[in-house]
Amino acid sequence: MTEEFRYENVSHADAFAANLANWEDRVPIHLEQYGLEAFDDPQHRSTVVTQDVPVLERFAGPLRGQSLVHLQCHIGSDTVSLARSGARVTGVDFSASALEAARGLAHRTGADATFVESNVYGAAEAVKAAGVGPADVVYTSIGTIGWLPDLFAWAREIFALLRPGGTFMIRDGHPFALVFDPDAPEPLTPRFHYFAGSQAERWQDSTTYVGDGSQVVEHATTYSWPHPVSEILQAILAAGLKLEHFDEGKELPWELIPTMSKLPNGDYVLPQAYAQSVPLTFTLVAHRPA
């Protein structure tokens, strides 16, 4: 990996501006590298949604006919996959370029999906302004909450987006797995903070997480924030949501350390010596009380 990294004090506004510029730059690269031509097959769904929908439907019931808000939807591959699972989906993202790409994918594939431009912290108001009523389901998955400094405000937005009795689901990288240094000579060497602090993680990296690294972004600075499991759970509970399910997984959709093995579904697993020691993802399901 080629990142330059340090902890830094930064205002949320400045961090969001840097992140937005970076994600705008990523869009044309991701349009080439995401394999979107696979969606020409009307049965195709993203790996993430293929794994998440069975869990979601255990608690929310069949998605067909339900309204679903997909937070941090990026270029819409998961959003279209959710629509193909039967939901009426509204994707939300802060990148205008990503949403333009998402609308193009939805139009090309005939997916029942609309898109709203908004920061996560304004999502409930923006979705309401777009004429979308309280949702039956709110969903977000893989690589999302690390971009957010305040999970308590995030959880309040989720509560506001849901109708009474509605269901929320997230699957994301496990906070414990994210403390390890991918560049260390010994695997599973701790480097990064587990607990949240006053400083953000400042990354300087001109590449993105897909492709061979030959395509680069102009705006290379991004900011992220660590969130321990305790903070995630407390934010959900403090917002008034009721926890229904929490699970930890042994597969990750990206290569956290170079010694991981790739599975046929595209996910990665740790070497057998560590597989029973480190959780790689967490899955949380909660609902807004009726």
Listing every helix as H and every strand as E from the N terminus to the C terminus, the arrangement reads EHHEHEHEHEHEEEHEEEHE
Specify the overall morphology: globular
Beginning-to-end CA distance, first to last residue: 47 Å
Largest sheet descriptor: 7 strands, mixed
Number of strands: 12
The Cα radius of gyration reads 18 Å
Proportion of strand residues: 15-25%
Strand order of the largest sheet: 4-3-2-5-6-12-9
Low-confidence stretches: none
What is the total domain count?
Answer: 1
The assigned CATH architecture is 3-Layer(aba) Sandwich
**Class based on secondary structure composition and strand pairing:** alpha/beta
What is the CATH homology-level superfamily?
A: Vaccinia Virus protein VP39
Helical run tally? 8
Report the top-level CATH class.
Alpha Beta
